[in-house]
Amino acid sequence: MGASGRIEAFLEMMAVERGASAHTLDAYRRDLDDAAAAIDGDLDQADAETVRDYLDSVAGRGLAATTQARKLSALRQFFRFLYTENIRTDDPTGTLASPRKDRPLPKTMTENETGRLIERAATEARDPEQAPNGEAQALRLHALVELLYATGLRVTELVGLPASVARRDERFFVVRGKGNKERMVPLGSGAKRAVAAWLSYRDKNPALAKSRFLFPADSDTGFLPRQVFARELKGLAARAGIASEKISPHVLRHAFASHLLANGADLRAVQQLLGHADISTTQIYTHVLEERLVRLVNEHHPLAVG
């Protein structure tokens, strides 16, 4: 039985014993036929070096890491089948490492887009007639947006802030985040003014003033649901001329981190501000650092070519 016959036997086993779907079987067939065509000789006789060379050629085609990993998985299953059927006495894929999958870069916003978003929120807060849902929502939304971009809080941390945060005339406040851990976050002047305006309105409304939360709501938690804020934020983005599908509270948190790093902040400092327990979580932003370092060398190194 040649390589094609072994592949057919493997696919039959996958269908009968594993219950693999037609889609899965087609994918296995394509990947194994591709390997068989690329390898000089019978696929079922390939050694580890030959399989490694094939996978290197797959990577050389520029295929995504996920595609490379899928092809390796098909080969692993195939050679495991040959081993369990006593057709081979070894598995040539046993020492091969899976291709490293790149972590997707987080969605973010440009500084220009963030500025337009905040300016639109400020305009509506100053002139509620331009806001679709009146003064209360305009003031609250302005405070939320300014706070989020100034602090990089998680959305659950933001909407659940106690009112006491806004009553302190300090440059920093303490927030309790994941794992019940506390951290200090900055409160810039723009955010302080927006929060003060909202707090003034809030304190004049008896239904709101009695709550211990900065952004009270008639909800199970007693504060503004994050889904409501996310919906209002998308509406604000649309009114600011920004595609609403690219905006969310989490995107604004990413913008906070990305813009800090792009303007010279230290990765460790950003880790502390975001409340990441491990620096590896913050390292999704290293592409920003890399771009800044390349620009720094190109602009300031005496041997850089313009």
Automatic annotation (TrEMBL):
Could you name the active-site residues? R154, K178, H250, R253, H276, Y285
What Pfam families does its record include? Phage_int_SAM_1, Phage_integrase
By its UniProt entry, which CDD domains does this protein fall under? INT_XerDC_C (cd00798)
Spell out the subcellular localization from the entry: Cytoplasm
* Domain Tyr recombinase intervals: 104-298
Domain of life of the native organism: Bacteria
The Core-binding (CB) domain extends over 1-83
Please state the span of the N-terminal signal peptide per the UniProt entry.
none
Q: What is its main location?
A: cytoplasm
- Subunit structure comment from the entry: Forms a cyclic heterotetrameric complex composed of two molecules of XerC and two molecules of XerD.
Known PANTHER family for this protein?
A: PHAGE INTEGRASE-RELATED, TYROSINE RECOMBINASE XERD
Q: What does this protein do?
A: Site-specific tyrosine recombinase, which acts by catalyzing the cutting and rejoining of the recombining DNA molecules. The XerC-XerD complex is essential to convert dimers of the bacterial chromosome into monomers to permit their segregation at cell division. It also contributes to the segregational stability of plasmids.
* Similarity annotation: Belongs to the 'phage' integrase family. XerD subfamily.
Name it: Tyrosine recombinase XerD
Q: Which organism is it from?
A: Mesorhizobium liriopis
